Amino acid sequence: MPNYKLIYFNMRARGEVARLLFTLAQVEFQDIRIEYPSEEWIKLKPTTPLGQLPVLEVDGQRLVQSKAIFKYLAREFVYGKSNWECAEIDGIMDTCEDFHTPITPILRSEGSEKAKLLQTYQEETLPQILNGLESLVPDGHNYFVGEKLTVADLSAYCDIELASIIAEIPINELLHKYPKLSAIRSHVESNDRIASWVKTRPKTYV
Amino acid sequence: MPNYKLIYFNMRARGEVARLLFTLAQVEFQDIRIEYPSEEWIKLKPTTPLGQLPVLEVDGQRLVQSKAIFKYLAREFVYGKSNWECAEIDGIMDTCEDFHTPITPILRSEGSEKAKLLQTYQEETLPQILNGLESLVPDGHNYFVGEKLTVADLSAYCDIELASIIAEIPINELLHKYPKLSAIRSHVESNDRIASWVKTRPKTYV
């Protein structure tokens, strides 16, 4: 097994899907957590390929971009059974990306500007993405793609949680009109390995 | 060969990489172009899975999200030679995505707000992405990944062109500090099939 080193901030945000994939696959990895902001990050930043985290090191070779890392690990451990299933997974992960895009502007703004951006996020962005994701779950299925947990379910699980924190809407309330997404959430949480990870991981805001 | 139908607006923007992949692979496809805005799009929108285009139909089954579509086609025709190469390609495509994120706010704003957003795009966003992409081209190589044209090169080719149009900076000027990216651009353009497609495709703004 290669030596895996995941370097990310001390948060879930754009790193947790990788940690869940290692956990599901029962593969050891170094979970390196950098405080943000910190002197350590200021020193580390120029040494990373894009000035960004996460970076995944595999036997010393580096990969960039969170979703590229998630898909790499998913392909190593478990992905779709066919090119078509992989593309369905990619479509779901790219839809989940829309949860992230408005977050930085919200966090960087203040006062009435922040309130306005937050309201748009709560009332327009989230329903649009959640409706889209709900429609991508096949009727009568427990997962987005195929008959088992994939990186698509893990991505939606992590990103919906992040969105609920940013939007200041409890997850149950956020998902109450989305029975299929609620069911996927329960399936992810009831996986023994995931449940144990969630219970013991460092507590962080996002 | 399956029946491929690419449904997208009458623009290059988020559809052209798929068209270039079909062109490179010499695979027939229906290049369905919807005018935007139009009555036709208003009618079509609620019938699409996410209310968005592009949609790729393969023998009547539908895939969503531009990058998921590009990667699906790339996997059908040509992708990386290994999981590692695929992840390098994904990392480059996700970095190219950063060209797109600020565009909608720029197009939707007006007056001094638009000028401010455009200035940030020109002076901060573009140099940051271009520096990142340049650093991801291995020294002495003609392509981002491996020894031949991949969907990573096509994505960078299309997205850099889009960025230059939005930023109102000619491509040569935009790339003059980035010799590796300029070289990749030349390699893409000098491919016979791509050159012929570019010459004969419908002329659109983006």
Order of strands across the widest beta sheet of chain A? Answer: 2-1-3-4
The CATH architecture term of the largest domain in chain A is Up-down Bundle
Largest interface: A-B, 32 and 32 residues
As for the number of domains of chain A, it is: 2
Strand content of chain A: 5-15%
- Structural class based on helices, strands and sheet pairing of chain A: alpha+beta
Topology overview:
Two copies of one chain form a homodimer.
Chain A (H helix, E strand, L loop, with lengths): L3 E6 L6 H10 L4 E5 L4 H6 L10 E4 L2 E4 L1 H12 L5 H18 L2 H6 L2 H26 L14 H17 L3 H5 L3 H11 L2 H9 L6
Parallel strand pairs in A: 1-2
Antiparallel strand pairs in A: 1-3, 3-4
Helix pairs in contact in A: 1-3, 1-7, 4-6, 4-7, 6-7, 7-9
Task: Briefly say what this structure is.
Two copies of one chain form a homodimer. The first copy, chain A, has 206 residues and is an alpha+beta fold.
Describe this entry's structure for a reader.
Two copies of one chain form a homodimer. By secondary structure, chain A is an alpha+beta fold. Chain A folds into two domains: 4-78 and 194-200, 3-Layer(aba) Sandwich (Glutaredoxin), CATH 3.40.30.10; 83-190, Up-down Bundle (Glutathione S-transferase Yfyf (Class Pi), Chain A, domain 2). Chain A has helices at 16-25, 39-44, 66-77, 83-100, 103-108, 111-136, 151-167, 171-175, 179-189, 192-200, and strands at residues 4-9, 30-34, 55-58, 61-64. A four-stranded mixed β-sheet of chain A has the order 2-1-3-4. In chain A, helix 1 (16-25) packs parallel to helix 3, helix 1 (16-25) runs antiparallel to helix 7 and helix 6 (111-136) runs antiparallel to helix 7 (151-167). Chain A is globular, with a radius of gyration of 17 Å. In chain A, 38% of the residues are buried. At the A-B interface, strand 4, helix 3, helix 4 and helix 6 of A face strand 4, helix 3, helix 4 and helix 6 of B.
